[in-house]
């Protein structure tokens, strides 16, 4: 009978070192992704706050414009009323 068993004996040090390096690189990649995600979250939060501030500023401008418009309309009405009264007086 012929023994067809193949026996492998190898130094697994290089394989273990390679696997350790891969694990380190994967950890570094995970840390980089986590850091990037945190930065993106902070940027989104800052953008949301800036959008809220812009919206508040626009609302303030709208209110100011309304106040000015109301004042112009009141002055226009006064001038129109005075013009009508003067027209009656001169007739």
Tell me what the structure shows.
This protein has 1 helix and no strands. The chain has 91 residues and is mostly helical. The longest helix has 78 residues, at 13-90. The protein is rod-shaped and about 135 Å long. 0% of the residues are buried. The model has no long low-confidence stretch (mean pLDDT 88).
Summary tags:
rod-shaped; single chain; 91 residues; mainly alpha
- The low-confidence parts are none
Biggest sheet details = none
Number of separate helices: 1
Shape assignment? rod-shaped
Mean pLDDT: 88
Distance, first to last CA: 139 Å
Secondary structural class: mainly alpha
Q: What is the number of beta strands?
A: 0
Structural Rg: 40 Å
Layout of secondary structure:
Blueprint lengths: L12 H78 L1
Explain briefly what this protein structure is.
By secondary structure, the protein is an all-alpha fold.
